[in-house]
Amino acid sequence: MSQVVSYELHGNIGVISVNNPPVNALAQVVREGILNAVQQAQGDASEAIVLRCEGRTFIAGADITEFGKPPKSPGLPEVLSEIENSSKPVIAAIHGTALGGGFEVTLACHYRCAIASARVGLPEVNLGLLPGAGGTQRVPRIAGVKAALDMITSGKPVPAPKAKEMGLIDEIVEGDDLQAAAISYAGELLNAGAPLKRVRDITIDPESIEPGFFESARKNLAKRARGQIAQDRIVSCIEAAVNLPMDEGLQRERELFSELVTSPESAAMRHIFFAERQAAKIKDLPKDTAQRPINKVAIIGGGTMGGGIAMCFANVDIPVVMVEINDDALERGLGIIRKNYSITVKKGKMSEEHMNSRLELISGTTDYADISDVDLVIEAVFENLDLKKEIFAKLDATCKQGAILATNTSYQDVDAIANATQRPEDVLGLHFFSPANVMKLLEVVRGEKTADDVLATSMAIGKKIGKICALSRVCYGFIGNRMLSGYGREAQMLLLDGCTPTQVDSTLEKFGMAMGPLAMGDLAGLDVGYKARQSRTDLPDDPKLFRMGTVLVEMDRLGQKTGAGYYKYDPETRARLADPEVEALIKEEAAKLDIEQREISEEEILQRCFYPLINEGALILEEGIAQRPSDIDVVYVYGYAFPVAKGGPMFYADQVGLKNVYDKICEFRDRYGEDYWKPAPLLKELAEKGSSFAEWAAEQA
Ligand code: 3H9
Fold this sequence. Notes:
Blueprint: E1 5-10, E2 13-18, H1 28-42, E3 48-53, H2 76-84, E4 90-94, E5 97-99, H3 101-108, E6 111-115, E7 119-121, H4 135-143, H5 145-154, E8 158-159, H6 160-165, E9 171-173, H7 178-191, H8 213-223, H9 230-243, H10 246-261, H11 264-279, E10 297-300, H12 304-314, E11 320-323, H13 327-346, H14 352-360, E12 362-365, E13 376-379, H15 385-398, E14 404-407, H16 414-418, E15 427-432, E16 441-446, H17 452-464, E17 468-473, H18 478-497, H19 501-511, H20 517-524, H21 526-534, H22 547-554, E18 568-569, E19 576-577, H23 580-592, H24 602-622, H25 629-639, H26 649-656, H27 658-672, H28 681-689, H29 693-700
Parallel strand pairs: 2-3, 3-4, 4-6, 5-7, 6-9, 10-11, 10-13, 11-12, 13-14, 14-15, 16-17
Antiparallel strand pairs: 1-2, 7-8, 15-16, 18-19
Helix pairs in contact: 1-2, 2-3, 4-5, 4-9, 5-9, 8-9, 9-10, 11-25, 12-13, 18-24, 21-22, 24-27, 26-27, 27-28
The protein binds (S)-3-Hydroxyhexanoyl-CoA.
Residues 22-23, 25, 57, 60-65, 76, 97, 99-101, 104, 123-124, 127, 129, 131-133, 135, 274, 277 line the site of (S)-3-Hydroxyhexanoyl-CoA (3H9).
């Protein structure tokens, strides 16, 4: 028997145990071990077989690191047919999460029992894949076509009690000892003469599916696909489950799985899966760095940002005190939070009771003395360095020793803020993205003097509140906003060169961005960028630079809030509409600046907008602002809605080829000047070597 899978008899029950930490992924040795154990059990004194796992979870899926490499025997389908064809009932005993291939293993078993806290799911879609070991054929046979489609296209795990209602689990077992409970359940099944239940024997009546069901599912899913093809292929597999015999359905599933596993989309999404987990690790911090307890949090500032941050903590049962300058502001802040929660309740996504228990965790004060006992303070007032310094001096005077003092600034100097206290080692940036209770990214900004345990605690608390954390050093705009500057600049330059706003935005949206940069400007308010530019002294003195944004603001076209910006907005539906007035204005401005307008290809729009991101990303790596290129990808995917199916700007650059990116940047430099297009030395070096950011990262690791 392999080391990671053991088999032993407990009376008349054979018990197969998988032990492949951390998540019992189905590596080749695990597949082989299960196959051998099932075969062994056919010839011994066992009358039933229990399949269980050691450690924190049941099998969490195929071993993702094996994808993209030559397949190793036995394949998972072979193991599953051995289980399904066992002459003795095989009972899966589930704890933790049975995901992907792990859940598919249980579906090939004859019975499934689970503890109530377990969850089961098919999250393959999050990796640009579909369940490739029968999930698309077995789930619809058990739970029905609609439920299967929802479960597989959303990738969301289902809690065991709900899975039992859906028929996906046969029994919820009690007690702390799952193995003993599963053995006892197996005994009951034997005593009752329970049959060898095979999911494959269930048939779905095609007549039960309403006409047009699959077409409309495809259409709905395409709306949010953003360059992903997996959803469409999942629909095809479920259609096959309805219309084809089991073996042909499995064959179809295999073919489509093979298509996806070799697709660039899946490669990009697998990159992000590992990048996300890597980003949480700080290179020079020992794994066992001590953490400070965080049992109570204070938020300074009850605006939209402060309110969203407060909700993040209340959502994980951590009490929060919100600090405002006066009672009115405090009431307004707490009101925003109440309103946000009640919207969730109205949508049916939260019970009234649940909302109240969260609201009870959020209190307010106008007196700093009331936050002297908190473990973490997050300042979220508006962007004014002097004000922030003043607040941190006050926090220094009030908060207990050991409290972590964080600023949510988007671009101010965290070191200057830290130095306003006598304890700069306790200070760092925790940069949330708006709306803070929704957006997944948290940039953890390490000041020059930030202590190791402050960083370790911040990474852990970020994970606890459901954020994906990436570490940045201090610079203007940190990783994300610093890179954004050139992206926004080029979107506007493209207008003067001959594009319409629709052309720019729709090209980027077709690539997979959630929203193009000009429409995004309209959403955020064009005055925001305008004001930020006025306070910058490092921008070239060039009338072309951010010209259209400036002209529109000066016409009081501030974006959605004034009903017009780069576009006009339908007052009722808020639909964005091309505005011939703006298009004419762009032509006028170009003429004033002597710019000869021309046809611009989609390819050039992508290069002009994305290559500044990549170039700045290379500078950020050289300067040590980001730890790894993949951290930058995480920032862009989770903070700026860069399409996950493209893997983030640095992964995308590697796919395009750094030599191609570099050559194009040089061409733009020759055309538009060094002020805007200056290749980063690291990009040049890697391009000349024929290397990639991924290879560079591997050398640095
Ligand atoms: C599939 O099953 C295809 C089949 O349908 C068909 C096949 C033919 N493989 O997330 P964590 C690593 S596709 C390899 O921090 P948590 C992870 O990188 C798969 N490694 O823990 C990390 O490594 P490190 C479908 C994996 O407690 C460590 O384990 N399944 C895998 O927060 C801990 O991970 C999925 O998509 C894997 N499958 O969350 C499930 N999973 O420590 C993917 C994890 O070096 N996994 N690792 O950074 C998860 O969703 C979460 O890991 C889980 C635990 C919820 C299980």
